[in-house]
Design goal:
Layout (H helix, E strand, L loop, with lengths): L34 H19 L24 E10 L6 E9 L4 E12 L5 E8 L1 E4 L3 E3 L11 E8 L12 E10 L2
Amino acid sequence: MATNPKLPDYPSIPRRQPEHEHGKVQMIRQSKSPWPIVAIIAGAVLVIAIIALLPRVPHLANVPSGAEIPQQPTAEQVQFTDEKITSAPAGDAAYLTAVLRNNGNSAITGVQVEAQFLGRNGPILATIRKPVEGLANGTTGQDLTQTPIKGNESRTVRVAFEHTPRGWNKQLPELTVTTVTGTTP
């Protein structure tokens, strides 16, 4: 029998380290640059500047409750009497004059009426909305905002219609008060 002096191949096994040798600790290098701190401070300054320069929200006023809102004038407090219609000598214009009585407590600064012009056999030919004007010196129209009609006061007023419908029966149009504006006493 023969013996082989060659030893078998074993994988290389790392050699054992003695107990007194430990792994080396590596230190992480810290940057000597202050850039992260500068960026944080710059961001904070920017946020403060934006907040300081933004427009402020206006303070909302307390809205009065229903009991605190002053009474507004209504169509019921307006009364027309002594109505007369006058056609213009030339053209198709007409002027309605009347005495307006303010039956309320608040001063009236504006009235708008809707006039229905009827035909000869009674059909409605046109419905026209116009503002009411006060009469100064009996002939000159004056806006009611300049001279309001006070509560329980009467004044001569007029409504000017520049164009009346063809076939109108020349009678007083039917008036309906659509809008009344005023001030509180």
